Amino acid sequence: MIDPQILLDWPFPDVVATYARRDMAIYALGIGLGADPLDEAQLRFVREEDNLGFPTMPVAMCWGPSWAADPRAGVNRAMIVHGEQGLRLLRPMPAEGRFRLRSRITHVVDKGAGKGAVIYAESTLVDDASGETIAELWRSTFARADGGFGGLPQAPRTPHALPDRAPDAEVELPTTPQQALLYRLSGDRNPLHSHPEAGRRAGFDRPILHGLCTYGIAAHAVLRCFCDYDPARLTGFDVRFSAPVFPGESIAVEMWRDGGIVSFRAFVRSRGAKVLDNGRAVLA
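Predicted structure:
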């Protein structure tokens, strides 16, 4: 059973890692950049000789030991899913370098017995050489089997409201059957995305795509439609995950622009599933 204080006091060590241009290219390929091998705008992110850092790369960097895999956390790891993810970029993502990630758990929300729990965490990504902050991140983890421990029920964040009008733009981007196997090379080795039996234990008939891969695909849609593939123009990206994507499905991203804010959500049209909701992108 979850003890909220244990999670709030969790001793996260700083995680330091060096990333080369090749790592940045693998991440970009993992979220589908380069699907059109003649599109020079996409190729700038996937050729390591001249590539750019993709704006959402910070969410896939500096992986440390999983707190959820530690028995002290009190969660059923097979039943946890990514709930929400947010990112604020203070400077464009470099294409290579040595980086440090500092993290902490900030809130533990009890939705009630049979309804699960939500654990919120925040992280800061810095350039390890200069100490300059590159990005601030937050995320929530939905522990589907672990509610009813007597914790507080209040969520610390309110979902972004989408406009009540037809979308200003829509982009449909494909995934491949091996998309999760490629994306996992960027650090997320959760067996839910690569082992069929792990997928079945979690209630799915096969492995699902990483939520953060779907997140990056949605950022690709925004960068394509409103930023002319200029990564410096995307400075914030928040979203709620509402349903899984299975590798091989296409993701349709609906977008609304209001000044420097792009609201968005995403669907898998082939099965009528909304997979992302309450999306908010910030443009420079």
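Summary: The chain has six helices and ten strands.
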